[in-house]
Design a protein that fits this description.
This protein has about 130 residues and is an alpha+beta fold. Helix content is about 15%, strand content about 50%. The chain folds into two domains: about 5-100, MS2 Viral Coat Protein; about 100-134. A six-stranded antiparallel β-sheet has the order 1-2-3-4-5-6, with no helix packed on it.
Length: about 130
């Protein structure tokens, strides 16, 4: 099992920026462990991107949940003091259920297929542009 470490993820900008998610908390969940990460480059912790990776063992199966949350920050000035606060957020979550009998190569194949599905034009149209898929 890999040790806890920073997770680096490139964003989708024209010139991608690497975001480093630093471990902030680990806790036990039923049958497993949850690891929380935060992009510490944000000047305000309330508007920092977060990443959560949970892994738990179920009967004859393992469950892995990955959630990336990105708050949208707004600046507001009250009595001459400008502050940044979280206005809302977007979140993407993927949950994988993998039978314990599956070979590593089969689990990898499924994970890569899901990563590729997230780049499919129908998914992009729905997530990026809010278009309905008919």
């Amino acid at each position: 099992m890999p040790g806890i470490a920073n997770v680096v993820v490139n964003d989708g900008k024209t010139t991608p920026v690497a975001h480093t998610f630093t471990p902030t908390k680990r806790n036990f969940i039923p049958g497993g462990m949850a690891s929380n990460f935060r992009d510490l480059s944000a000047s305000n912790v309330d508007v920092a991107d977060t990443l959560v990776i949970q892994q738990s063992d179920m009967k004859n199966m393992r469950k892995v949940r990955v959630r990336l949350t990105r708050p949208r920050a707004v600046s507001e000035t009250v009595n001459g003091v400008t502050s940044v606060r979280k206005a809302d957020f977007a979140s993407v979550e993927v949950v994988a259920f993998v039978p314990n009998t599956w070979a590593t190569a089969d689990a990898k194949d499924m994970r890569v297929m899901m990563a590729n599905a997230l780049n499919n034009t129908l998914v992009v149209a729905g997530v990026d542009n809010g278009e309905q898929i008919l």
